[in-house]
């Protein structure tokens, strides 16, 4: 019997945690923009078709091209190492606690509270408050937690099946690492595999083709009410980038990315932004054909992959350190993600009487919400048992 053992590690990559902080702030900025933009897709909105209101729409659309896919990639980085240490069964139970409990808590508490404005109308129709409380709204931003839970449980099932098949064939894979077995928790391999231009281009091609074929069935703007998924048109990107995160852990791709590739990706992202915005506008116009849809799918993912590569290299080279404030922010970032709708809506309601351009109100809301979210998250996590989940 052959045993291929993983070498456990405990260190983390500071720049990956710093990227998670940045993306969490970007989520707050995204939903703050929806509050005052011409897109009324948030719990509390003050729609504006002014120039700054339109600018906030553009900001939100550009974010959507890449930032949640990036979140899934980063989430995937730490999954293999966690399964290595705990085993598939214990890992699955841990995910059900760490992701399932916040999802259920949001559904039972935050979701109906954020939808209370709908109660008078539904009460007038004869609906009971109890029925309203348990049926109004959807998971909101916690759709990310919902999808991530499904993906992580699927990976745990894959690892359990792989281990079972390995035992039957006489090869025991300790932690499921295999011959390339390498550092799990921090997402770095002992011998990083080079990431060439064609590999990055291939990823763009796979993402573009998968997105195009998917959007023939699930066009942009589709909303899945049953599961509360606001952007199912981007599901191929979410799933593929999560898998890229899993593979990057084993192959050391984060370390292998070069500074030159980072600069090249930044240039491509800047140039590709205009292409992505233009083709997306054409693809969502009435009567748009398959060619416009294909161009949009490819252009969006050129921008998305380029931004992700550029940010990975930038943070690895320039923002890898973690001073005390960054450690604090990283520890509380998931709790911030869970509670931020309550904070954003509360602050926006307080400032509703303020007469100011949409862009100004957006900046005020974001400036207040960032410290408030982290402050409330810190206090929440000090409650006994909460830090185990958040």
Quick summary of this structure?
With 390 residues, the protein is mainly alpha-helical. Helix content is 69%, strand content 2%.
Q: Could you characterize the architecture of this molecule?
A:
With 390 residues, the chain is an all-alpha fold. It has one domain. The chain has helices at residues 14-36, 51-77, 79-86, 88-114, 119-124, 129-135, 143-168, 197-215, 235-251, 253-256, 259-283, 290-318, 324-350, 358-381, and strands at 2-5, 171-174. Strands 1-2 form a two-stranded parallel ribbon. Helix 1 crosses helix 12 (290-318), helix 3 (79-86) packs across helix 4 (88-114) and helix 13 packs across helix 14 (358-381). It is globular. The two termini are 41 Å apart.
What is the H-and-E element order? EHHHHHHHEHHHHHHH
Helix/strand-derived class? mainly alpha
Q: Which residues form runs of ≥5 with pLDDT under 50?
A: 1-11, 174-190
Percent of residues in helices: 55-70%
Number of domains: 1
Total helix count? Answer: 14
Mean pLDDT: 89
Write down the Rg.
22 Å
Most strands sheet: 2 strands, parallel
Oligomer: single chain
Q: Report the count of strand segments.
A: 2
Percentage beta strand: under 5%
Shape: globular
Strands in their spatial order, largest beta sheet:
1-2
Distance between the termini: 41 Å
Pick out its properties:
390 residues, mainly alpha, two-stranded parallel ribbon, 2 strands
Secondary structure elements and pairings:
Elements: E1 2-5, H1 14-36, H2 51-77, H3 79-86, H4 88-114, H5 119-124, H6 129-135, H7 143-168, E2 171-174, H8 197-215, H9 235-251, H10 253-256, H11 259-283, H12 290-318, H13 324-350, H14 358-381
Parallel strand pairs: 1-2
Helix pairs in contact: 1-2, 1-12, 1-13, 1-14, 2-9, 2-12, 3-4, 4-6, 4-7, 4-13, 8-9, 8-12, 11-12, 13-14
């Amino acid at each position: 019997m052959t045993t291929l053992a993983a070498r456990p590690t405990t260190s983390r990559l500071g720049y990956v945690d710093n990227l998670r902080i940045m993306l969490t702030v970007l989520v707050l900025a995204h939903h703050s923009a929806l509050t005052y933009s011409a897109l009324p897709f948030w719990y509390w909105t003050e729609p504006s078709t002014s120039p700054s209101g339109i600018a906030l729409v553009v900001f939100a659309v550009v974010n959507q091209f890449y930032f949640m896919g990036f979140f899934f990639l980063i989430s995937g980085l730490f999954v293999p190492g966690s399964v290595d240490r705990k085993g598939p069964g214990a890992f699955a139970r841990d995910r059900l606690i760490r992701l399932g409990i916040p999802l259920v808590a949001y559904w039972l508490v935050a979701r109906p509270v954020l939808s209370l404005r709908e109660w008078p109308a539904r009460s007038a129709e004869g609906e009971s408050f109890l029925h309203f409380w348990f049926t109004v709204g959807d998971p909101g931003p916690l759709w990310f937690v919902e999808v991530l839970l499904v993906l992580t449980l699927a990976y745990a099932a894959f690892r359990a099946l792989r281990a079972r098949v390995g035992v039957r064939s006489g090869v025991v894979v300790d932690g499921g690492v295999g011959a390339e077995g390498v550092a799990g928790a921090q997402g770095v391999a002992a011998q990083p595999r080079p990431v060439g231009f064609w590999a990055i281009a291939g990823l763009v091609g796979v993402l573009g083709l998968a997105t195009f074929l998917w959007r023939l069935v699930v066009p942009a703007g589709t909303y899945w009410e049953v599961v509360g998924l606001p952007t199912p048109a981007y599901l191929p990107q979410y799933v593929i980038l999560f898998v890229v995160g899993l593979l990057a852990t084993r192959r050391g791709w984060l370390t292998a990315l070069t500074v030159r590739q980072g600069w090249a990706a930044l240039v491509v992202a800047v140039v590709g932004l205009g292409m992505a915005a233009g083709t997306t506008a054409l693809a969502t116009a009435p009567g748009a054909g398959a060619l416009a849809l294909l161009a949009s799918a490819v252009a969006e993912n050129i921008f998305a992959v380029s931004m992700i590569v550029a940010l990975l290299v930038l943070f690895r080279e320039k923002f890898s350190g973690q001073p005390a404030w960054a450690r604090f922010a990283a520890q509380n970032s998931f709790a911030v993600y869970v509670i931020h709708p309550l904070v954003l809506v509360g602050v926006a309601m307080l400032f509703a009487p303020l007469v100011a351009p949409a862009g100004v109100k957006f900046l005020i809301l974001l400036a207040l919400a960032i410290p408030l979210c982290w402050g409330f998250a810190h206090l929440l996590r000090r409650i006994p048992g909460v830090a185990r989940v958040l």
